[in-house]
Amino acid sequence: MPKNNKEIIKKIELLGKQILKEIKSGENPFLDIPIRSLSNVYYNPKTKMIELGLSKSKRYFFNVAHIRKFVQTIEAAATVTELLKVDKHLSLRQVFYAMRRTIKGTNIDVVDEQTESNQAIEDLELLTGFAREELHINAKKSGAAAGKIVIKDRGDIIDLSKMGSGGWAIPSNTEDVEFKKVDAKFVLYMEKDAMWERLNEDKFWEKNNCVIIASQGQATRGIRRLLRRLSDEYKLPILVLTDFDPWGFYIFSVLKYGSIALANFSNKLAITNAKFLGMRAEDIKKYGLERQIIKFKDVDKKRLEQIKNYEWFKENKEWQKQFKRMKDMKGKVELDALVTRGISFVSEKYLPEKIKNKDWIE
Predict the structure, then answer these.
(1) Of 60, 97, 250, 257, which is the active-site residue?
(2) Segment holding 324, helix H or strand E
(3) For 3-138, CATH number?
(4) Spatial CA neighbour of 198 closest among 334, 295, 332
(5) Is the pTM above the cut of 0.85?
(6) Positions of the chain with pLDDT lower than 50, given as ranges
């Protein structure tokens, strides 16, 4: 059994022993769970990350309002312990079915919906301090990578420079991926797989000695952890490429500073040295993309107002300038609009020039 598995099992068993001790002493057993909500999350200017506060909530077994979630969390702990002992993994959906059983002597199921098993897993993360991937629970894969890196993943040696048109499919758990060789000078992350396919076909990663990584929208935990590890372990700059829109800016914010939902794991996921290489207001005029402006919807306006008031953006003059120009423009522009300048314009001119001139926002 891997060392990390033993460590997690020990943590879960200590939790179980504490509950048994409370039961034997006639007490009302409880779980002390950190509160993961906006009221208990804050931005730490020293670490430059969103972090979880110290507030906790006691969930008692002998409490009608608490008992169902209490039992679900214990069931999740039992399922995870079994997975760790046999060193196997299940998906979030499969864990739901593993937990969905009828309590003996009743007609009540431990969980009725997957949202309940997902919440129980999140509670277990908070109680143990280990991410669900470390608990051997995987989410859906979403992402691709190619470039100057050789890795070892579950015993297989994988050269990311020889993965064809599809690239390496990034798994949800990248914690145990072993880097065997890293020749890249930087990592270019992008929010859209269509842009990744353009750069991969043009062999951008080979010509610029880098790694290109993409997701489909917001980066998964696996991608964020992979980026953080490359930043920490190999000091590779992480350059983030997104559209000129509030949603692209938000994706960058989550990558660099962390998120409210995962504030308890910012120390593993936030990439504080990430740089925004995405499209800016200046690019629209420079490359004649005015005709490509997409008019704002109300939801875009609302998101922009939220982002510009984030504490970590408030004092950043360059970011505030971009927010103001976007508001004045009353619209957004996608990176795909650069195809109007040529099929490979983005890989042959746009990005090389920006990288050479260090034309990014910290």
Answers:
(1) 97
(2) helix 317-329
(3) 1.10.10.10
(4) 334
(5) yes
(6) none
